[in-house]
Specification:
205 residues; alpha/beta; Rossmann fold; four-stranded parallel β-sheet; 12% strand; globular; hydrolase activity; AB_hydrolase_fold; hydrolase; GDXG_lipolytic_enzyme
Length: 205
């Protein structure tokens, strides 16, 4: 397992982060130490990391990646969330990604000269042939990124890819990071992580 802390905006806007991911995958596939099974390389991430995982195949030869696991990723960075209806939030929950925050984050990451159709930017614009044979998306019902993820899932399934989708009812973006044991959020975290483990076992077969 390799853990990547990629460069972030605004200091390092797009395409710095996907280039970091490409460098790590390239190094892994070279397998200079000779102890890796490069036929079973899987990439995954949370939030922006999930976005980078989903677009990673655009910078790799077809078949280089065995699978992708993306947990509450952004899949269409062209969306202006300030003009869309906000996600419904249950009593006791709060939205960690208000529209103004998403807009600020996207503006920090995407420069005025960036081609918004660049396949490394938004998974919805990544050619379906660039995705690995199996994809797992875990998304949250009360996440403003929920609906765009559904669009991506449908697009990949139409293309014939094996896409596993797990929706977490009443959960918000990043809920698992603050979830406490013996709570609904804690139980949801265990369920989501168990799904990841089970899916990885299948991907590594």
């Amino acid at each position: 397992m390799t853990h990547l802390v990629h460069t972030t905006a605004p200091e390092w806007p797009f395409p710095a982060a996907p280039e970091d991911v490409k460098d790590v995958i390239d190094h892994t596939l070279k397998n200079e130490e000779g102890y890796l099974d490069i036929a079973r390389v899987v990439i995954g991430g949370f939030s922006a990391g999930g976005t980078l995982a989903l677009t990673a195949g655009a910078s790799q030869p077809k078949g280089a990646l065995k699978g992708v696991v993306a947990i509450y990723p952004a899949t269409d960075l062209s969306i202006d969330h300030t003009i869309r209806p906000p996600a419904s939030i249950s009593e006791g929950n709060s939205n960690p990604l208000p529209p103004w925050f998403l807009k600020l984050g996207y503006r920090s990451y995407i420069s005025s000269t960036t081609d918004v159709l660049d396949p490394r930017l938004s998974p919805v614009n990544t050619d379906t042939s660039s995705f690995p044979e199996r994809v797992l998306l875990i998304i949250c019902e009360e996440d403003p990124l929920h609906d765009e993820a559904i669009v991506l899932v449908e697009r990949l399934r139409i293309a014939g890819l094996q896409v596993d989708l797990k929706e977490m009812p009443k959960m918000v973006h990043g809920w698992d990071k603050e979830a406490k044991e013996r709570t609904l959020a804690g139980a949801a975290r265990h369920e989501a992580y168990e799904t990841v483990v089970d899916t990885l076992k299948i991907m590594f077969q």
